[in-house]
Amino acid sequence: MKIKRDWIWGWTLIAPALALIFLFTHIPALMTLWGSLFSTPRGRKPSHFVGLANYERLIQDPTFWKVLGNNAIYALGTIPVSMALALAMALLVNRPFKGRALARMAYFTPTVLPLIAVANIWLFFYTPGFGLIDQVLGLFGAGQSNFLGNAGTALPAIMVVAIWKEAGFFMIFYLAALQAIPPQLAEAAKIEGAGAWTIFRRITLPLLMPTTLFVSINAVINAFRLVDHIFILTGGGPDNASSLLLYYIYETSFRFWDTAYGATLSVVLLALMCLLAIGQFFLFDRKVHYK
Amino acid sequence: MSGGAISLQGISKSWGETQALDGIDIEVPAGSFTALLGPSGCGKSTLLRIVSGLEEASGGQVMIAGQDVTQRPADKRNLSMVFQSYALFPHLSVAENITFGLRTRRVPKAERAERLTKVAALLGLSDYLSRKPGQLSGGQQQRVALGRAVISERPVCLMDEPLSNLDAKLRHAMRVELRALQQSLGFTMLYVTHDQVEAITMADQVVLMNAGRVEQVADPKTLYERPETTFAARFIGTPPMQILPATALGEIGARAEAATGRALQFGIRPEALFENREGPFEMVVTGGEYLGADALVSGRIGGSEALMRVPGRALPGPGAGLRLGLAPGDLHFFDARTGRRVTPPSGFAPFP
User: Which family does it belong to (chain A) (predicted)?
Assistant: First the structure.
């Protein structure tokens, strides 16, 4: 009797949280999966079951492969650079110097700003002719540039914004992790003849591995999740040169109102992110030392 | 391996306005076990870090094995160090922790393995070499830290309160072991502790520090039997020596002050007092503390609080009046103003 009542109590207590997570996460995910098996209703033609037809279309869609490729370049370009930058900044502001608090704040500021605001700032930097970059380059006699309007430079220009925005955020995690490493470890290593580089490579870096795993998973998720700046800067153009998977999903679903195909793309994105996150756990597992 | 002497000359250290160390001169003979003893905040750990090279002195010279190393970095001073927190690398195995220094100094692999086997056997760590520090008990972690220091075969070893994280029983065992290790390997040991028992039981020489200065340098026996200052007297012994004002000893106090020509305080160890019907002191018992093997009787001598150590079976009740005796040599004289030891004129008998 007693055990049975505990069981009811437990479910009652987690019910509100469960209801929310099912309502806003799991059910929509399942509905998306379900929706990807139907056609998009158009005018009088109601939606009907099409099986895997949407997925066949996806495989043959050059734009899908284009944005997927863009996203891969975007992830491979932004994640390592922003993480390395974050670690470097954390190491820098972890040692005592005058104005350290100010430097920390300066590094963290981009994180506090909404991505839309960040994009607006960078829009000003990139503006051809009188943007900050052109004004500085103009001092050296360079002509006008159009980073955002050029198919070759639009994606790199977007990546720079993402790195600028993300590095400060990751720095906070690295800084916290660095401060959790007892300074005696470095001192003991120093007495044993280890130089700054050996200490970093053999002690600091291994002890930061749990943070690196955490940050890298977040970075991968963000590389697929954050597309706000594309709306402001390029709108995915020119010719999808700077479009990413999620931006393409938005365009398909809410600009072209091809909701079934949008659902199909969403399912692929979801599967991809699950795979990447799980993959990272396995990849890092042996190298991560947890306390 | 033989030890190298350490010589500190006029070491001082200040952080802004705070003077942590002030003109420290210490000679640590080669191969000796020297304890830096003092209450927390007296500067003993700072001094050790200055010897190690992890901290820079504001002034003075550090000599190790006859060489001036004041300007040298920590790894060029040819010493090893054990930290209070052990400072083991949590992601490395016991074997990797112990051989860390050999690897950074590019000792060949075969020699590393050979030395590791020897040290592990010496410290009883052979079965734990592949474990991580987190999987070891506090005592075992302590041994790994010792192993890391010992394997380098340096002539000087510095230790910063290495036993303070162990429980009382283990601490006792490790005291014996540390001393034996130091004697068999013959290195010079500079050992920081706030625990007088550790200093007294292990050291050849104790450097007692107080507020950034050296209070007394002596072997443990001398430190116990002839404390040079009231601070030393109050620091050594469990319970420590009690310092009584001259007024508490009445006529005896007045005679001693007249003979030495200055205001005095008197030091008496609780264990030096004994019951004696013809004794010079009268103590009124106010309480007692039973300790097992013996007991502490608290009471008043001439209005001042005093303690006496008695065999555990003979604990007198409160209110009793006891007549106490004391060997003349067990009454210590200190200058009331400076706190320094005063030697009475030869032939002076404190008790008439």
Answer: Belongs to the binding-protein-dependent transport system permease family.
B121: containing domain: 6-226
Question: Which CATH number covers residue B116?
Answer: 3.40.50.300
Residues of chain B contacting residue A290, judged by C-beta atoms under 8 Å apart: none
Chain A residue closest in CA terms to B90: A291
B82/B131 same-domain check: yes
> Does residue B198 sit in the same domain as residue B249?
no
Nearest C-alpha of chain B: how many angstroms from A285? 13
B65 and B92 both lie in a single domain: yes
Q: Give the start-to-end residue ranges of the domains of chain A.
A: 55-285
B99 and B19 belong to one structural domain: yes
**Cα–Cα distance measured from residue A127 to residue A124, given in angstroms and rounded to the nearest whole number:** 5
Please report the ipTM that was assigned to this predicted complex.
0.82
> How many domains would you assign to chain B?
2
Looking at CA atoms only, how far is residue A90 from chain B in angstroms? 21
User: Is residue B343 assigned to a domain?
Assistant: no
| Domain assignment present for B344 | no
Asked whether residue B349 is assigned to any structural domain, the reply reads no
Q: Give CB contacts under 8 A, 24+ apart, made by A175-182.
A: A175/A90, A175/A93, A175/A94, A175/A104, A176/A211, A177/A90, A177/A207, A177/A208, A177/A210, A177/A211, A178/A90, A178/A91, A178/A94, A178/A204, A178/A208, A179/A94, A181/A207, A181/A208, A182/B85, A182/B87
B188, B240: one domain: no
Please, are residues B216 and B223 in contact by the beta-carbon 8 Å criterion?
A: yes
**CATH number of the domain enclosing B267:** 2.40.50.140
Cβ B243 vs Cβ B265: under 8 Å: yes
B54 touching A (Cβ < 8 Å): yes
Shortest distance, CA B165 to any CA of chain A (angstroms):
15
Q: Is residue B114 part of a domain?
A: yes
Fold of A55-285: MetI-like fold (1.10.3720)
Interchain CB contact of B99 with A (< 8 Å) = no
Question: Strand locations in chain A, DSSP E?
Answer: none
Chain B positions touching A189 (Cβ under 8 A) are 89, 100, 104
Which among B79, B90, B104 has the least Cβ separation from residue A291? B90
Residues B194 and B321 in one domain: no
Contacts of B79 in chain A (CB under 8 A): 191
Q: What residues in A contact B105, CB-CB < 8 Å?
A: 192-193
Interface of B with A in 102-161 (CB under 8 A): 104-105, 132, 134, 148, 152
Q: Report DSSP state, residue B341.
A: B
Bridge partners (DSSP) of residue B9 are B61
| Per-residue tens of pLDDT for chain B, all 352 residues | 577 899 999 999 998 888 899 989 999 999 999 999 999 989 999 999 999 999 999 999 999 998 999 999 988 899 999 999 999 999 999 999 999 999 998 999 999 999 999 999 988 899 999 999 999 998 899 999 999 998 988 999 999 999 888 888 888 888 998 999 899 989 999 999 999 999 999 999 999 999 999 999 999 999 999 999 999 999 998 899 999 998 888 888 888 888 888 899 999 999 999 988 888 888 999 988 888 888 899 999 988 899 999 887 777 888 888 899 998 889 999 999 999 999 888 888 888 7
Q: Are residues B259 and B201 in the same domain?
A: no
**Cα–Cα distance, B249 to B308 (Å, whole number):** 15
As beta bridge partners, residue B19 has B14
Q: How many CB pairs under 8 A join A and B?
A: 60
